[in-house]
Amino acid sequence: MTSRPKPSATALLSPMATSLAFLAIVIVCGIVFAPSFLSVANLASVSSGIMAPAIILLVACLAMTGGVADLSLGSVLGLGGVVYATVLQLSESPLAGVAAAAAAGVAVGLFNSVLSVRFHIWPLIATLGMLVAARGLVSVISGGSSVAAYTPELSAALKTAIGPVPVVLVGVVVLAVLVGWIIRYTRWGNHLRAVGGDDVAARRAGIPANRMRMWLFVVVALVAALAGSLQVMRTGASAVNLGEGVELLVYGALLISGYRLAGGGRGSALSGLVCLFALELIRNIFRLRGLPLPLTDVLLGLTLIGAVSLDLVRGRVRRPLIAQPATG
Amino acid sequence: MSTSGIALTNRWARVSALAPRGHGATTLVLLLTWLALVVATGLRAPGFLSGQTVVAVAFNMAFVGIMVTGVGIVMMSGAEFDLSVGVTAVTSALIVAQLLVEGWSFPPAMLVAVLFGVLIGAANAWLVLWLGIHPIVATLGMMFLVSGVTRIFVDFVAIPRDSFLRQQAAGAWLGVPRVFWVMLVVFTIVGLVIRSTRPGRHLVAVGGNAQAARARGISPRRVQGVAFVLCGLCAGIAGLVLASQGDIVQSSLTAGTEFRVISILLLGGLALTGGRGRFSGVFASLLLLSTLPTAIVTWGVSSSWQPVIEGLVLAVALAVNSLREKKR
Amino acid sequence: MSTSRLRRWPLKAVAIMSLTAAVAACGGSTDTAEPAAGESAADKKVFIGFANFAEPESPVLKALDTGMRKEAEKRSWDLVVLNNDRDGPTAVSNAETMVAQGVTHAVEFQGDGKVAPQLMDTFNAANIPVIAIDIAHPGAHFFGINNVEAGRLSGLAGGNHAKENWDCKPDLVTLLENEASGDVALLRTEGILKGLKEACPDLPDDVIQRRNSPTTPDGAQGVARDILVSKPDAKNILALGGNDNMVIGTINAAEQLGRAGNVFGYGLGADLMLFGVDTPGLGGSTAFWYEGYAKEIFKLLDKIVAGEAPAVVDSPTDPNAHFNPACQFPNDQVKSIPSLDQRIEELYAGDAGSASAAEKYCPEGVETYGLKG
Asked: Among A253, B61, B267, C197, which residue's Cβ finds the most Cβ atoms within 10 Å?
């Protein structure tokens, strides 16, 4: 850049500021256009509805900081859900269900990590295959229908609230702070940022970049599968299309909050969460107003393009004109 | 890197020796696999080796094949993907169908539909090359925009049976559907132009090494811009093919179509980073992946397995692709 | 050429324009009745929550949507319309949204029977009576199509054609279903098989090819082509499926393979056939008359609101349940009935009588289900 932006301008364009501004605009729209949206019950419903995406978003933050963007997250969420539900039905033990879902997640994560890290394939591309394959497995396992797994106690537990605030929301925020802390202040977090920012430099500094990436893939898939079983605990059944499009919601939110697909970026877990919340509120307002849902697609498209342009305005993406993905 | 890492590296070196050398070999391996599939299926069910299968596979190839050609140009030029190609084709099909319903004659209706494709291609080029948004994000955003806007306005259009499009395009020539010949002509022209003309060589040069191409006085931006526009043009033509095939065009695209397009290109040996690969290999992979679903029915495998198989095929294709890149 | 040369003006413009447009879209106008925020519970104005099966893109869902709005307007009741997006979990969260908004009565249309108990817990906790469309929800008034019986009508029509023309020996019966549609798909398939066997009890199972298919025309064509190819000698082909799209797709596929001569298709739902999609070989389709749903639902709601407390029948196999009548509809009679827009107009006009859509429009002498008299 020839001229440095003034400090005040930089602050205005910082990820957290823009994310909060985005949320604020959405909330104002909500208040103006759908007054009932502010009711405690509605907000509680929205915030517990984004539980699974929010958990995935947090772990996706970690992974993206290290340069791993996993497109199969939504399908793995569905896989975790259907595995949990099926095992629960067979064994009648939620614990066994969760363990099985976790195992499925780890297996998928290992597959992705071998393909991407060992064969040096850009993560976003390497996980494309799993996006489709895991979704197919959901159909194979469930025989193409949904699987009932209603456990009233667990479902009720996940819906408990302290006053107006749902417990899961508190949990998610605590997790977000934890993830933010890990990324900023721990040795591991430092290494992670080095890996995401500059692979070669990280390797020269003696950081085992490949091993870290392999771990990231496994952790992301594991958490996605667990989030899937949590989701099923809450709603009482797994569906064939459970989690479809969650990856777009999550990465959309992360891109808006300043993360970069190629790795690194200057977003934070909290700003990502704020953006996710804003996107979900938009959907909620649409529902309350009975607006056509394809309009949400239009909106997501516009927001993606708009957010990335904004990121470029911030002058942080130093991407050469021709994309050169990190193929190792 | 740790010792175990080195051991693994050695092991890949051995594995990579098995990977086909050169692009002619890719084509050969794919064709042999295809032949094995056809022979095995034929032995199991002799009725499979019939003109009926040829027609069915030709139909499977036509619509997807034209989109593969378009995205192939983009990939070759080093601009990665165009994810919006499928929904653009669907919208083109709806446009031509609606215009025919309203009594337009075929040539102007066709022109409008194809121009729509070109327009979307140009918009993608602008977003990616002039604004510098990553192609995946830009074309994904475009995909949502186009499909969202389309679905707000149209659900389906019934194409008049007596229209030129249904009467002519639906017929066959030499026992093979006309839509297949359309695809073959588009595919061959593009393949030949890329291989043996000056603009084609420029495209490959830009995809291979943009800096070097620039040094030779070729403008990467212009070349890639043309690639996106041509891809849009192909999407428009694919829309015409889609509209000619049945009585109805619906505003939603069959799930997984974009994924199939990318799988075919990668399996066919086009390099993700651009500049390498041959269209003959892409044709072989198009043939293989279009025969697979028709053959799978004969084997009595549940159709739920199809996405699982396709996902794994893509993973293998990616691994082979990457091994080949490593040898350079 | 480096990043510094990227022009920033257009970037800023695009960023600001897109974000503004995105946010502005939230405020887009709509005719949904918005419940007044300050209304106290004491007023107890009737406030209907309606969760539709999916985005009202298809004419059937659009017709249902329009009907619900018109009937609510007629009674000046408040109405909120949500979208279940063909997805059980979404339906659960929509139910929570409805409760949160304080609806007094709920009309639920979602295809996943497995989340029904969970969903009903949500409504029961808030003491909201529920009418469930098409899929049984324990404790909710069932209303709608009997998917099994509707499937049976199509299966019967197809079976009778096979009986009269092919001596109950078709070479191939294609039966497409969309697994992702959940129980609806399974129940319809069950009914189709039932009807088929009713007409042709000795029909061997191996001529029936039951396959999962996408709901898109090109997707259904692809699946049907592959089935037809796997049976190259089959001439007399019966094409059945979970909706019109799949059946028409099968006929189109047979045309592509040059085998349309002896294909007989019978659709389900009549959603495309009644829109003038005239495919040769399509004998007819079982008409659901979705456009009449809202009318029947509001008749039931009237009773509930008036405090008559009609008995809750939650099972679609119970003859006392509230069914929307359905009937077979031959393709050659499509031109004899008014267009959908006109039918909606007629059904929901201020002075429209209480006749249901099936009573008004079903032709004479066809098999019907749920029509009295």
From this structure: A253
Find, among B102, B97, B99, the residue nearest to B250 by Cα: B97
- C272: Cβ–Cβ under 8 A, 6 or more apart, which residues? B156, B158, B248, C243, C244, C245, C248, C285
- With vertex at residue A266, the alpha carbon angle to CA C3 and CA B84, rounded to the nearest 5 degrees, is 65
Task: Write out residues 34-93 of C within 8 Å (CB-CB) of B.
Answer: 55, 57-59, 62
d(CA A260, CA A63): 11
Instruction: Tell me if chain B has a CB within 8 Å of the CB of C211.
Output: yes
Residue C14 binned pLDDT confidence (cut-offs 50, 70, 90): low
In this predicted model, what pLDDT tens digit does every residue of A262-276 receive, in sequence order?
666 566 788 888 888
Q: Which domains does chain C have, with CATH numbers?
A: 44-145+290-324 (3.40.50.2300), 147-287 (3.40.50.2300)
Q: Between helices A128-142 and B305-327, what is the axis angle to 10°?
A: 160
> C309 to chain B nearest CA, in Å?
39
- CA–CA distance, A75 with B96 (Å, rounded to integer): 35
Specify whether the CB–CB gap between A303 and C22 falls below 8 A: yes
Which value does ipTM take for this structure? 0.80
Which pair of structure tokens corresponds to residue B221?
A: 């931006």
The yes/no answer on whether domain B62-327 falls in CATH 1.25.40 is no
The structural domains of chain B, with segments of one domain joined by +, span: 62-327
CA distance C149 to C141: 18
Task: Please compute, for residue B328, the number of CA atoms within 13 A of its CA located in the half-sphere on the CB side.
Answer: 11
Domains of chain A listed by start with CATH number? 27-313 (1.10.3470)
- Residue of chain A with shortest Cα separation from C91: A235
A327, A115 contact by CB (below 8 A): no
Test B151 with C55 for CB contact under 8 angstroms: yes
With bands split at pLDDT 50, 70 and 90, how would you rate the model's confidence at B6? very low
Q: Is there a contact between B311 and B303 (Cβ–Cβ < 8 Å)?
A: no
Query: How do beta strands C326-330 and B156-158 pair?
Result: unpaired
Torsional sign, CA B89, B91, B97, B102: negative
pLDDT tens-place string over residues C312-370: 888 877 778 888 888 999 988 888 888 888 888 888 887 777 788 888 888 888 888 87
How far is it, in rounded angstroms, from Cα A234 to Cα A176? 21
Q: Given an 8 Å threshold on Cβ–Cβ distance, is B60 in contact with C249?
A: no
CB A124 within 8 A of CB A215: no
Distance of CA C204 to the CA centre of its chain: 30
Burial (0-12, 13-18, 19+ Cβ within 10 Å), C322: middle
Q: pLDDT value at position C4? A: 38
Give the Cα-Cα-Cα angle B90, B94, B95 (nearest 5 degrees).
Answer: 115
